[in-house]
């Protein structure tokens, strides 16, 4: 298995939970975005080569969620992921912090309230980002990398209001005139002329 399909996600995370225990790890909540989150929530059913970790979550005393950026995965989690990767023939960096910088540059308002929790045992809880936040992230990624990001964006069947909200957030990520023009061009290309004129 070199690709992770929707049917593999729970199996892989259950195996990771088990290996965290073997490695004498600690409880951890991981925020997962990208293709894994899309498939896990039945939003877009496609395969992916990795699990994109945005950051980690701690539950406060009043049961609120506190989000934390991660510079690196804990050693015990790296080792647990390596074992699971070997067992399932996954790419070497199948569990990675590729999008982690987004925690520093800013998240959409209300992001943490929309996270979808999935607990896999004593150690591992996964927090999948919501459909609304996927639309924000996928629009942003489409401006830079297009391809499957744009396919994912429109597979989510966003409303005009959702595209406009996402576009306004995207502009907080890069305030340059060049980026603004790229966004307006993308919106016009995909039939959102009114939104392009309003932002």
From TrEMBL:
Residues 26-144 form the DUF6036 domain. InterPro entries: DUF6036. It comes from marine sediment metagenome. Pfam families: DUF6036. This is DUF6036 domain-containing protein.
